[in-house]
Here is the input.
Amino acid sequence: MTDTQSPGLQEGAELLSYGSSIRINAPPKRVFAIVSDLARSPEWAGSGAIRSISKTTEGPIGPGTKYQSSEKITMPYKAETEIAVFQPEELIVWGSKPVGERVPRHRWSFRLAPDGEGTILEHQVRVARARGVMGWIQRLGFLFTKPKKRVPTGMDQTLINVKKLAEQEAKSS
Here is the structure.
């Protein structure tokens, strides 16, 4: 299943997309344990925007698991997140958006592929354009927050952070 086919995520004209990858000297199981635990994202997210995040549903992590986060990009806000696809050691896809805002969810994903003794980790985001008046407000917000410059830098740093965590954990086990 490709990210564009992910259930539970709204479709719309694309406003922003970005993807990058990195090789990690740790097995997919260890890497997936890090990236699939969204409660750990303040530890590895390269943007620095996520201040805290908490799981708000009971049970194991999987499709339908929800979180709420406290974030700051220019101004503080709360965001809601829901996992749409969860394939252990292969793929996690989730949607996130500011609480109460009538905009499509941003679609984020990590795709993992074994590579010898290591893992290729690919990170992607797709931001869909809101419709109507919210579309204009969303584009105006993009003028101030400059995500086309900030997002690639933050996502590349995320991959570096995950690599460092996974390789440190692999060495200590």
Q: What stands out?
A: The CA atoms of residues 29 and 103 lie 34 Å apart. The longest strand covers residues 75-87. The two ends are 33 Å apart (CA to CA). The chain has four helices and seven strands.
